[in-house]
């Protein structure tokens, strides 16, 4: 188990990646760890490129930005092209195959999951793709405990959407369950 | 946004600034929202009414600064927050607050400039503007946090210094620090001292608004509405508050504005040192860049290189003595900042030619990484 995680989410503004980063950092705090979340985004509220980064560690965290990712989630072709080369050799790389069709020349262990499509078809709304992605990510990496993740999601989402978001997490976890068991 | 619980939690820099203001006893905010500082306004619009304070969204930044001065003159602890374009607009009224000695706090969450520049892009291009943005000779206190915890603590300190020295105090974040979320442990009430301005001990009939009564050289400040009548003017004035053109009075006024801060530099100047004792290369960085520099120091030490870091916590007054002392034993000094060379000139002045000074300078909206700093260290050694 790593004691220092550099996690990067890349995609398009509006996909909820910064929210996903905040939730993951909050889950780490619930687990009693140290966490820093930072972001970079364009001036547009939707459609520009968006990046969220989360550092999780048992001790203090100096630099708050990812140098080489231990975990990468990409949800747009542009983000895949830009960030896939900047990962560690043993990184977990999660690619939303709904939007990223081209093969990427990547290092690390690559998992292609139809994240946005699953959100739409299995949960009923694509807007929860970020939560499905968190289910996938934590399912694969166990970087935070599942209980802390559920707690952090429920604390952050709008009232009345709790069940939908819980389902989204489960859909994400189920999507990679076979992969984890096989590994 | 959940803002009620005061224990260990994940908090954004801007939110920590807003909570620090509440902790320090702020009761007034006037501002015009601007990225990347908007959360400070947003949160205080909710929090100030909860503690009996007032929040006003003004028509622009100029009026915001004027309202802050007005509120403070009535006795309120007042602040505003902005970014570069708004900081430019506020400068004239900031000068007014300096010459009229009105305590207030101005947070500037720096983005890439000049002008509208890059609204969401981190930068540190306003640090000389903090020093000399308003015209005329004036001392300046400017604090610069490098963590969310410090966003809270230095906002409290900014209010304390504003009250202690009767002067505007700047707290300058870069966009990364303002928008970053990090684990913080907020202090209980009373854990950090809260300073309040000195009030007059004499009655209204013998009160002279700008007459210092002790060695602090800071005149006691009556609140408008308390029955003390005095003149508040941006013109150079004597101890009564009325304008004067007598050279000796003008000189004394300006000198006192400087002395009230410069006579107490040990109380004001703050900085942090890391591995500086035997450093052959001295790094200097502030704000988010100091985090990259701190990592670079650790990486360099792990590689057997003697590297240390000075992190100014007060950018102004600048901790020049510490820089001078460290430079005396160094082979090189490296300044990393997200601009094309601002504090580096202050460092050159402090170093006094004892060692060559190099820059890791960047103004493209991207953060400076530990890797870039480490590469420069290896280049100059």
Describe the structure.
The complex is a heterodimer of chains A (about 180) and B (about 375). In chain A, about 40% of the residues lie in helices and about 25% in strands. Chain A is of the alpha/beta class and about 180 residues long. Chain A has a single domain, classed as Pyruvate-ferredoxin Oxidoreductase, domain 3, CATH 3.40.920. In chain A, strands 2-3-1-4-5-6 form a six-stranded mixed beta sheet, with helices on both faces. Chain A is globular and about 40 Å long. The model of chain A has no long low-confidence stretch (mean pLDDT about 95). Chain B is an alpha/beta fold. Chain B folds into two domains: about 10-185, Thiamin diphosphate (ThDP)-binding fold, Pyr/PP domains (Rossmann fold), CATH 3.40.50.970; about 270-380, 3-Layer(aba) Sandwich (Rossmann fold). In chain B, about 40% of the residues lie in helices and about 20% in strands. Chain B is built from 13 helices and 15 strands. Chain B has helices spanning about 15-25, 40-50, 60-75, 85-100, 125-130, 150-165, 175-180, 245-260, 265-270, 290-300, 320-330, 345-350, 370-380, and strands at about 10, 30, 55, 80, 105-110, 120, 140-145, 170-175, 180-185, 270-275, 280-285, 305-310, 315, 330-335, 355-360. In chain B, helix 1 (about 15-25) packs parallel to helix 2 (about 40-50) and helix 3 runs parallel beside helix 4 (about 85-100). The longest helix of chain B has 18 residues, at about 150-165. The radius of gyration of chain B is 21 Å and the shape is globular. The interface between A and B is medium-sized, with 21 and 24 residues.
